């Protein structure tokens, strides 16, 4: 079985494990107050060209999202996002469990627009009964989105303007941020993000780390006391240096970007092949998640050798599925997939 | 200014105030453990033909909804409702503030169908990642709905079957339950509701009481320890007998039904008049809330003398608005409204 | 049965019911945005000599406490109070239910001292692991306390200084504020409180209203958006003017203070009688709650005719109990109690 | 600097890292539904002699505690524990953040007794106002405690009986369970715990794993739907097999017990030395945490070469501190500590 159903199915880049092994019996202070975290933090600040940002390391994405939102929101405020957003659908109501409504807007290709957020806020604040409704306060975006699409600089700049207009925080879930930035469709880089968002996280789990997400807090108003929330929500890893090690390896010599480029190149090869065979897509994704629409017969045969994610039924005989490439996908694995897919489609 | 914008703009039926006055200096035990509450409880049990139901008295509707839902749901469960539902839109995220997601389904005339709930549950429980999503556990309906429409016995019976199939609780928000039951379009009565729902509340605030809602808990599994939740959520009125007095007056000699009939008759007169004049409606409401679509000019002129609620803009020159009648609306007030409306429409 | 077990066992001062009756069919805007609330608000601002304070009207004390605390605290902050405090013991964890720890300090006569709070904060903020503990942010006091004792101006001034030192909010639960201010032991008045606390509430339920508490928010930082929280927590009464009517009657012509003085005079008569008979007290209370320690035999006999609250067992044959006087206690009721007590003690 | 201040200052037992390295590029299903977790689960079930228990793997202790308690408690219920308990003091109110009160009882040597819990429940359930107080529902114990002390079989059996009497869940925090079981003072083993507690966790983070805690759910009533809560609270690690690997290595060939014995032997050597020198202890701890009371001068000199935790000031010139040994402590490190301590004490 070769697994293409997600991008978190292998361990970590060998360099990370190697360093863990080398430093295994060194003693460290706990809870992220160690030199490994300090080093990783400095590397991320440099990569963001933003020496003043705060960087916190957490274990997973769901945890990072609800911890940040719990810290950023007052009890009557909510987060605005696409109705396909991870926090809206696939985190078992973790944001609501901290007391906050997730306010969904209809997505298009997994994205929402500045105009939608503007209208949402206009409706809210101009309503005489606005105190009877949850106040929008955070815009939550994913880069890339659940459907593999990306926000451009122009789109994020517009969103920033709407956030300024209505005094919202702009937060970007970057579980797959590297894969997004590796795409030609995406002109966003870390310095731009650090100038534009109030906070965002750089995903590690899906991008070459064993586990871990680096939350970057840009806006000074969101910085104080964050470590209290981190501890309360279970996100302060006792052996915090394990996160420091991982992110410093990822950001040393550009490994993070290199791994992202690798996944991107493979995804584009798959996309090109499918396109050449006239296979339609659920959405035109420019990143490491590809959503072709394939005949049930092809998929059923394919499933004997490959795993992939079911996305949705399209018609009586076709389903949209998801193939992910990742930092760990091997050329040979992709070659095999492409070859088998071609054979099945031609059969 | 004559107010038609809601049905909670006057005090209480005089009989209620009279009894408060008469018993004012009598001493009572606190927190709803008094004889007035016992009497009201017994009267409601009789009206429901269900001597075994629990009846708790709370002050307001938002409070009743989130208190019941907090008691009924485990931390990973949510309530399914129409996207126009009061808990989804107009309670400032009070359900989320107790930790629970409100799962919305697209409404039609303010209602959702058993088929929609069935599909929602099927999607949830058949999904391999269902543990990553909030489990649907309560179906929340309003009788009548935010748009004045009603659920029939047939519809509620179907919804009950779906709830049984998926082990959901069926909960009915009856802020305007009397007005619903007074409508010819609604064949539901209290005994039916007590046989069909797991819990529901009989609204007092909009139906002739100063304030107060009577929560009826039918299902034995939902009964234990409810008073703890009542206290925790601020719903246990110190002078609980004030609620007992109000509900015993409302249910003595059928006053509750009589007041509902009064509002209904007036609403139907307004509806008939508007229909006669070919005024379109946003929705065909058979109850005390009417939503005509009227020219801006008419509404602006009308607003000098009457208040009504803005519902939504329909086109460049027309808006849908809401007129409510209530137990307190006087014939002369409605006559004036109809007469002025006619004059404006003819002008 | 004559009830002395609490101060919320009768309805309301007749003037309040009278005005409700007179205005019963007048129409009002909902949710506290009416002229009755505006009038009551202005009267309270005048009584506080503080025209700039915000005043919100809620239905009950538990609700007022958790609503204010939810609005004032970030998710990692807690409220510091006596281990006998109402929020710590008798509100079914309503503060915790909004996500916040109640940090208790050992009480003495129901009170805590500025020195205790200072030490608590010193321990917290000087601890290297302070992020692993809940940050103290509100000091919660009751005036008068659960044991009938009072804080003096000197004590509150000291507490204010400690709050300033550690950036805490000072909040005073005034469920029995009038009874406290009526005591010779208490030199606090409303203007002092409005200069000293960040927020406090003036109790209505136990002080002559049918129900209702007036929350006074002094500190500008706590004012914005409070009505959102009010709605979310179920504290925004639909017919808000009912609260406005009650507080404007209570503050018209000094009725609130007159009723408090009445209860105070009766309590002092009871205390004097018990003292004269050498009955010991659990605590030396200068207000309307008295806690004598009496032989079981006396209490058992007394219980046939009077109700009182059990406070705690003192030894094998004695219990401390609570007698409350209130705005509604009649001279004759107290005379009867004193006379029967004397007879039983002499027997 | 040699660190004795805690038992989570090194990485993991080399066997664990070795296996991570070997399996690094193998592909696994996510979220704990893989063969490594299945293997570890089976090994723990065998070690517990309880094939029917559920075993879930989480990343950290705070997370495990609040996730279990959120799953076990209804909104009006709380957890009873020592006032020194980790959940009461050092988890930033994480339990309260899920809505539940932590009900503290005065500790003795870090422990509470069955008699205390019995009295707490008696007071609660016999109080006429019990609905105004949080219902005790879980007893939370730590084995070993914050002060290194242990509960014996006799004590846990008594606690079990009280839990049965009052229908409480018995939950044991086993962050240092191995170290406890390695002590001669502790006659508890895993099979006993699996017969006696309703749930407990076997700590990995402090016991030789990189990170990870294995939650064992014994009582059938607590098993359903736990994975929903796991996901919601951020405890469902994407690459769950990393936890499976760690626990299967720890439970293969008794490594977990061997590592615990190692730490225990070193701790007892330190204790024996200190005892021989007549150094008093804050508490007589039979496990890997030792709390000697030492002169400030000695500690200040020692601090140049060793780290240890500050526990509390004892008098003007003495402080109690904590030295931890662990699976990773080397004989030579302890020898150095003992030798330097002796020299300083003799100076």
Describe this structure in a few short sentences.
Chain A has 347 residues and is an alpha/beta fold.
Descriptive overview:
Chain A is an alpha/beta fold and 347 residues long. Helix content of chain A is 41%, strand content 18%. Chain A has 14 helices and 13 strands. In chain A, the strands form three sheets. Chain A has a seven-stranded mixed β-sheet with strand order 2-8-7-6-5-3-4, sandwiched between helices. In chain A, strands 9, 10, 12 and 13 form a four-stranded antiparallel β-sheet that branches. In chain A, strands 1-11 form a two-stranded parallel ribbon. In chain A, helix 7 links the parallel strand 5 and strand 6. Chain A is globular. Chains in contact: A-B, A-C, A-D, B-C, B-D, C-D.
